[in-house]
Amino acid sequence: MAKYSIEDTTLTNIANAIRNKTGDSATLKPSEMPTAIEGIETGSSGEMNVKILTKMSGNIDGNPKYILQRLITEIPTITVSGTSMQSAFEDCINLTKIPTLNTNTIRNMQNMFRNCAKLTEIPLLNTSNATNFYYMFADCDNLITIPQFDTSNVKDMSYMFYNCYALESIPLLNTSNVTKMDYMFYSCRSLLEIPQFDTSNVTNMSYMLYGCDNLITIPLLNTSKVTAMTYVFYSCDKLKTIPQLDLSSATSINYILTNCPALENFGGFLNLGAAYLTSRAENYTAYKLDLSKSTKLTHDSLMNVINGLYDIATLGCKIQQLTIGATNLAKLTAEEIAIATSKGWSVA
Q: pLDDT tens, 93-110?
């Protein structure tokens, strides 16, 4: 097993970690401290096991989380076994480099690199058997991009790049089996674009692109199965273009486009209200749909919204409100507004 040397300045911290684990309150001198990590390996459940050499009592187990999170900047060769690497490198705030890992048996990569704040790149890992990428790179503040992982079996990508502030680009990943993308790119402030992902099986996109300040356009995404779309584009300050969104299955869309001041071209909502209003009790107020901050919307974009409204007038539902604001209202004629009201919608 490979050794990883530790500088003398860190020995006292390692000693403290050992003392905390063993309950030993004795004062230990740096000269009595461990001088090297014998090796690091993953257990069957993905936990990190650290063996430390010590002059006092032979090999003893140290506090692996403390050592990994605070002291290690690079990881030696790791023996990977089992099917999980959940939280394997979580909170390793000083880690700058990951070795090539044999991950061909790993299915669970949840939280694997979460809060690795100094990590700027990731090696190409074998992810062909992975199904869970939940929180995989969340809070990796300096991560700029990722390799072309094989994600053909992944089902959960929620929170995958949560708060990855420096992330600029994403390769086209195979997302054909993914069902969850909620919070996937939350606050990815440097992200310039997203590929045309296969979202045909996704059911949850809530907060997916929340606060992506530098996104300008969105590709056409299949949202026909999505039920939850709250806050998807909330505060996307520079977003100018969004294709039509199929909301035939959507039961929750509150604040989906709120605070998108640069939005000009919008394909509208297909069947807005079809699922929510027919799945709730009569007279239920379903939506908080507010486009009033998107004052640059073209006339055609506003008509795309109105024409895509589901006709709820015959369903006995309470009138639903579409808020577009005074600036956008002035772009429409009374006859055009009447199209919405005839379908059971109030335009304000």
A: 888 888 778 899 999 999
